[in-house]
Amino acid sequence: MGQTVFIPRELDANEPRVAASPDTVKRLAGLGFAVIIESGAGTASRIPDEEFTKTGAVIGKAGDVAKADVVLKVRRPYRS
After folding, report:
1. Can you tell me the distance from the alpha carbon of 13 to that of 34, in angstroms, rounded to the nearest whole number?
2. Could you tell me the pTM of the whole model?
3. Superfamily of domain 4-71
4. Chain segment 16-67, per-residue pLDDT in tens
5. Would you list the domain boundaries of the chain?
6. Dist CA 80 CA 23 (whole Å)
7. Whole-angstrom Cα distance, residue 14 to residue 34?
């Protein structure tokens, strides 16, 4: 596989969006990207994990960011 894209859940409680829709995941996977979505990333957008897996994503955990070549977020990352 090509590069890995990681999509974390947003940490801001006021942010209901997720950085990619299932359609976006399908397109990325079709281009050869491995896509990892953090478990629950789509919950606030009413997109269950299963919708992402149907289109080619793997459900992961926050620590999977270390496997990523690219991280997609709605809001900028917090400093740790």
Report:
1. 28
2. 0.91
3. NAD(P)-binding Rossmann-like Domain (3.40.50.720)
4. 999 999 999 999 999 999 999 999 999 999 999 999 999 999 999 999 999 9
5. 4-71
6. 31
7. 29
